Amino acid sequence: MHVALWRVMCDMKMIPFKPNIQSIRPYEPGKPIKELQREYGIRNVTKLASNENPLGRPSTDVLRAMRKAIREVHLYPDGSCYYLLERLAGEIDIPKDQIIFGNGSNEIIELVARGFLSEGDEVISSEMSFLVYPILTQVCGGRFKAVPMTKDYRYDLDGILAQITERTKLVFIVNPNNPTGTYLTAREMDAFLAKVPPRVIVCFDEAYVDFVEAADFPRSLSYIREGRPNVIVLRTFSKAYGLAGLRVGYAVTSREMTEYLHKVRQPFNVNLVAQAAAVAAIEDKFYLWKTKRLVKTGRKYFYKKFKQLGLEYLPSQANFVLVNVKRSGSEIFQELLRSGMIVRAMGAYKLPDWIRVTVGRRSENAQFIRLLKACLTEKT
Fold first, then answer.
1. Pairing relation of β-strands 201-205 and 231-236?
2. What whole-number distance in Å separates Cα of residue 168 and Cα of residue 145?
3. In this predicted structure, what is the pLDDT of residue 38?
4. What is the DSSP letter of 340?
5. What is the Cα–Cα distance from 211 to 297, expressed in whole angstroms?
6. Rounded average pLDDT over 3-7
7. Does 23 fall in a domain?
8. Dist CA 324 CA 355 (whole Å)
9. 292, 349: one domain
10. Is 288 within 8 Å of 61 (Cβ atoms)?
11. In the listed set 261, 283, 305, which residue is the last one of a domain according to the structure?
């Protein structure tokens, strides 16, 4: 063995890597479109995998605000997100000192984990939910408890309650849930919160709330207005507002909780261009309406086509649909990939025969159905 290499290997053994972090399997995003084009020799690639906005780009007003903001990128951003805070507080009718912004709602989840978890503390969620929850729990030295879903692929709230112990610090509930698209009703949520010990923090992750049509969906911000101190509501500008690449998310909670989380937050965590874009996005109601309409019609289209193909699917309140392809979802994913269509296989969620497809434009949705039908036909 080369002497220099031997020394490096010896030095690496001396580095104090934490076992709880060493054993983590990192979250795996999909490959960039350009890399897939190069690897598969494909010119046109359609991505319906990451639940991004189906319109394809932000509104003209948002782009204009971004171009204006770029002129000032030599300056640090406003650490308080002053103008964005003013505009959002008025939009959702919540006091400014009960809102905190993050580099995507993902960062808010990390702030909550870092702020409340110590070695051996417990976090509870569903076994079919956002994969970041168990990762961040393990990073903080905590123990993640995954509760199986009900037979209709919904959160088992009674099961979560049964898992709460003296070491439980956090409960994460994604509503509507990713990747199933199912949701919990207001009545179910009210009953659940009435039984949760006040010392346990309940985080409602509502990344997909803008696509909800169900009349009995919980009005989660009312929990904040009622003064519940242990509730945090997470939302994002990534989906319905088309700002996924800029990373802007926020949490709404009590004044005391907001003040506490600011102590964990890094300064200047939301960049200058992102803040300007988010303000403009709130103003553009027409863009949001177009996005919702496109998602609504796209979901109905998928339902119709899946029925025709004889495939089981889950009615969704989000901008994606989960469908059982009756064979390996990973195989279908690879076959679609070779044709330039990117979806999401669900093996990581213990759903090996399912794939998740994001609602896209009409032409993209039709292309997906055509390619899926071809994959299924080839095997029959």
1. parallel
2. 10
3. 67
4. T
5. 12
6. 53
7. no
8. 7
9. yes
10. no
11. 283
